[in-house]
Amino acid sequence: AKMDLKNESGEKISKLVFSLNPGFTVQSVELDGGDVDFDREHHILTVNVASGISPESNVTMQVKYGGNISAHSSYLDVLEELEEKVNNIGPYKMPKEFGFVTPDYVLLTQENLWYPIPGTTHGSEIFPKWKKDFFDFTINVKTNENLTVITQGDPVVENNGEYSFKSSQPLPQLSLVIGEYTKRSIVVDSVEYSLFTHPEHNY
C-alpha cells in the first residue's frame, strides 16, 4: 500500500498511527523511499519518524504486508456478545462471517482493515474523536482470469485477470469483491449502471 500523506495537525509530528488487520504481517515501512521503524500492537501500526514531519509537509509512505485477515478485528465497535450471537433463520443456525478470502471468492470491507486506515478504530466502549478521511486512490488487483473484480473507482485496466481502478472523486472507504460474475450494463444519460450476478442466477 502506497500513500501520499499531509500533516495538517498544525504541529510537528514524530509518529503516524494506522489501523491494519492483525492477521497481516508487516514486512517493511518506507517513508519517502527510506526504511523507518514501526511497532505493531494488535491492529495498531505505529510508524516512528525520527526526523519528524513539519506542518503542511507532504510525505509518501509505503507499507509492505501480507497474510490473511483475522475476523476478530472486524467491527470492534460491536459488543462481543452481539458479535458472537448465532443467527437463526427458521430451523437453521447461520454462523457469522465478516470477510472472505478463498481461492475463488473474496469479500473485504473497510471493517476488515484490509488496507491501512489512518488513526484508530472505534471500540464497543471507547469512542475516540474521529472523522472519516476522504482520499483519491488507484487499486491494482491480479487474480484468476476467470474471476471478476468489483470495487470502487473507474476501471482503467481489465486484461487476463489484471485489474486497475482509479477514483474519479475522493471516497471515505474501499471494499473489494472477487468472484465468478456476469456483468450487465446500461448507459442512461451518460451514466453507466452495472449489475453483477452469478452465471447460474439468471432468474
Provide key terms for this protein.
203 residues, mainly beta, four-stranded antiparallel beta sheet, globular
Q: How much helical structure, as a percent, in the residues?
A: under 10%
**Average pLDDT for all residues:** 87
Low-pLDDT windows of residues: none
Tally of DSSP β-strands? 19
Structural class from helices and strands?
mainly beta
Strand order of the largest sheet: 1-7-3-4
Question: What does this protein look like?
Answer:
This protein is mainly β and 203 residues long. It is built from one helix and 19 strands. The chain has one helix at residues 80-83, and strands spanning 2-6, 13-19, 24-31, 34-35, 38-41, 44-53, 58-67, 87-89, 92-94, 100-102, 105-108, 117-118, 138-142, 148-151, 154-159, 162-166, 176-179, 182-188, 191-197. The strands form six sheets. A four-stranded antiparallel beta sheet has the order 1-7-3-4, with no helix packed on it. The chain has a four-stranded antiparallel beta sheet with strand order 5-6-2-12, with no helix packed on it. Strands 10-11-17-14 form a four-stranded antiparallel beta sheet, with no helix packed on it. The longest helix is centred in the middle third of the chain and has 4 residues, at 80-83. The chain is globular, with a radius of gyration of 19 Å. It starts with a strand and ends in a 6-residue tail after the last strand.
